[in-house]
Amino acid sequence: MMPIRLLALDLDGTLLDSRGEISARNRRAIAEARRRGVRIALVTGRRFRDARPIALELDLDDVPVIAHNGALTKHALTLETVAVRPLPREAAHAVLRLGRECGAHAMVSDDPHGAGLLVHERGSERNEELARYIAWSRRVVGTDADVRCVSSLIEYLDHDPVHIAFAGGCATMGDLGARLARELKGRVRVVRTFYPKKDFALLDIINPEASKGAGLAAVAAEYGIAREEVMAIGDNFNDLEMLQFAGTSVVMGNAEPELRGASRFHLTASNDEDGVALAIEKFILRAE
């Protein structure tokens, strides 16, 4: 096996434990990998505005943050935009209309060249899951200055947004995701992130060419790193393409059963048992 030169880390359910924190052992393993010359990339379904605090906390301001499931890559400290694949406006309008027909409330992620903006529609606060998500995002970022409420998202979107998301129960989001994928086939990519224990799911609607795998491939190419030298760690369906791209793919002990059962993926401990650190120690630190 070739030495690992690039380590791609998912955040929620992977690097972060069930309390949303990073363990001391995970911190030490990442720091030691960096000391040995391994590049780090954070690859997350989170919006950039929600992922940025994690990068800054870990002093990873010089690494690429591949956010929005691959639709936007930026540097945390400088806010330099490395790459963006926005959702075409016409497709975005179609997504909003279908969501409205299904009684779902949308969140729009915007401002690809700044710190990020979360936009929702007046009245959407009545959606318990969406309100909970917005409250969580405010806590993570520490401000509500970049959360905006508008009277109509369709009127607001006179441009291409970064992406659109819906939040709700697993069954409801599963049905909506299937309809969006069916009726807008080829025009959008529907990325699902499910947390069955909480009966909570996120649907991210992004540019059809965007994915965590495509974002990771672009970063590897920029650094001149072969995919055989890339290691990726994840836990959910939105990590699948990233895991398929990497030469060494590791899934968490708390990952979805379909991922844990994939024969080509290595299994580590859960996010509450330092699974990321154990994988780094096994495939990077001990391997050297």
Brief write-up:
Helix content is 35%, strand content 23%. The chain is α/β, with parallel strands linked by helices and 288 residues long. The strands form 2 sheets. It has an 8-stranded mixed beta sheet, with helices on both faces.
Structural topology:
Elements: E1 6-9, H1 24-35, E2 39-43, H2 48-57, E3 64-67, E4 72-75, E5 81-84, H3 89-101, E6 106-110, E7 117-121, H4 128-141, E8 147-150, H5 153-156, E9 163-168, H6 170-183, E10 189-195, E11 200-206, H7 212-223, E12 230-234, H8 240-245, E13 248-251, H9 257-260, E14 266-267, H10 275-285
Parallel strand pairs: 1-2, 1-12, 2-3, 7-8, 12-13, 13-14
Antiparallel strand pairs: 3-4, 4-5, 6-7, 6-9, 9-11, 10-11
Helix pairs in contact: 1-10
Structure description:
With 288 residues, the protein is α/β, with parallel strands linked by helices. The chain folds into two domains: 6-84 and 210-285, HAD superfamily/HAD-like (Rossmann fold, 3-Layer(aba) Sandwich); 89-206, Hypothetical Protein, Haloacid Dehalogenase-like Hydrolase, Chain: A, domain 2. The protein has ten helices and 14 strands. It has helices at residues 24-35, 48-57, 89-101, 128-141, 153-156, 170-183, 212-223, 240-245, 257-260, 275-285; strands at 6-9, 39-43, 64-67, 72-75, 81-84, 106-110, 117-121, 147-150, 163-168, 189-195, 200-206, 230-234, 248-251, 266-267. The strands form two sheets. An eight-stranded mixed beta sheet has the order 5-4-3-2-1-12-13-14, sandwiched between helices. Strand 2, helix 2 (48-57) and strand 3 form a beta-alpha-beta unit. Helix 1 packs parallel to helix 10. The termini are close together. It comes from Pyrinomonas methylaliphatogenes. Keywords: Hydrolase.
